[in-house]
């Protein structure tokens, strides 16, 4: 199952590092949770393959932030390769793995 959406990159900070994410729109999140059902992994994560621009990578989406909305982590190598950063809008293609 594949989903396409646009979203803005945003930063989440921990005590020692910061990470960059793009949030899944509510309708995509609803479909992901419906398909994953009782097969969610640790912390409610779902394994995915994501494509942003010419970069394709495997990772997991998981609930994060004040609203506990699902988010896709975007590694620095991907951001650097695409020349994007926090605040930029990216087009994402998301494919669920293991389903």
Main attributes of the structure:
alpha+beta; six-stranded antiparallel β-barrel; 99 residues; 2 helices; Elongation Factor Tu (Ef-tu), domain 3; 6 strands; globular
Task: Give structural notes.
The protein is of the alpha+beta class and 99 residues long. It has a single domain, classed as Elongation Factor Tu (Ef-tu), domain 3 (Beta Barrel), CATH 2.40.30.100. It is 18% helix and 48% strand. A 6-stranded antiparallel β-barrel has the order 1-2-5-4-3-6. A hairpin with a 4-residue loop joins strand 1 and strand 2. It is globular. The model has no long low-confidence stretch (mean pLDDT 93).
Task: Annotate the secondary structure layout.
Layout (H helix, E strand, L loop, with lengths): L1 E12 L4 E6 L2 H11 L9 E7 L2 E10 L4 E5 L2 H7 L6 E8 L3
Antiparallel strand pairs: 1-2, 1-6, 2-5, 3-4, 3-6, 4-5
* Physical arrangement of strands within the biggest beta sheet: 1-2-5-4-3-6
Q: How much β-strand is present in the residues?
A: over 45%
Radius of gyration: 13 Å
Shape: globular
Alpha plus pi helix count: 2
**String of helices and strands:** EEHEEEHE
Poorly predicted runs of 5 or more residues: none
Distance from N terminus to C terminus (CA atoms, Å) equals: 8 Å
Give a count of the beta strands, DSSP E runs of length 2 or more.
Answer: 6
CATH architecture: Beta Barrel
The CATH topology is given as Elongation Factor Tu (Ef-tu), domain 3
- Which CATH C-level class is it? Mainly Beta
Q: What structural class is derived from the secondary structure elements?
A: alpha+beta
Overall average pLDDT = 93
- Can you tell me the CATH superfamily? AF2212/PG0164-like
Please give the largest β-sheet: 6 strands, antiparallel, barrel
**How much helix is in the residues?**
10-25%
